[in-house]
Amino acid sequence: xxxxxxxxxxxxxxxxxxxxxxxxxxxxxxxxxxxxxxxxxxxxxxxxxxxxxxxxxxxxxxxxxxxxxxxxxxxxxxxxxxxxxxxxxxxxxxxxxxxxxxxxxxxxxxxxxxxxxxxxxxxxxxxxxxxxxxxxxxxxxxxxxxxxxxxxxxxxxxxxxxxxx
Length: 165
What we know:
By secondary structure, the chain is mostly helical. 58% of the residues lie in helices and 0% in strands. It has a domain at 102-127. The protein is elongated. The mean pLDDT is 79.
């Protein structure tokens, strides 16, 4: 078996010797450079526009999916059973004759919350962790207050206010 002969190293000057710079080569190089300079901005614009089209198409697809989700949600709200379930879950409604109990976990109430939530209300009312066993009675009877308001609205005459001179 013969070993393949190694190629002799080619020097740069020997490689350039065979390369002639004539008008044909200069014209071809000029056309290539001119083409690259002319087409590069247009290709860049085309790529940017394709990206924008893809983003717009994705936004349209998302909007279509959102519309489908909303239509599905609207169909759910047409079902009386779903409405009843939502009223029970969200508004704590009960059917006539049922008794509703709202059990709150004392550990789950954030007593430092001041955002106007149930936790904030409980934090204002109770500054202690003890639970009282006393039954408290309100000092005002709301039925009497409503009755008094209705009677006063029917009997009393409106009073005109005079603006200070």
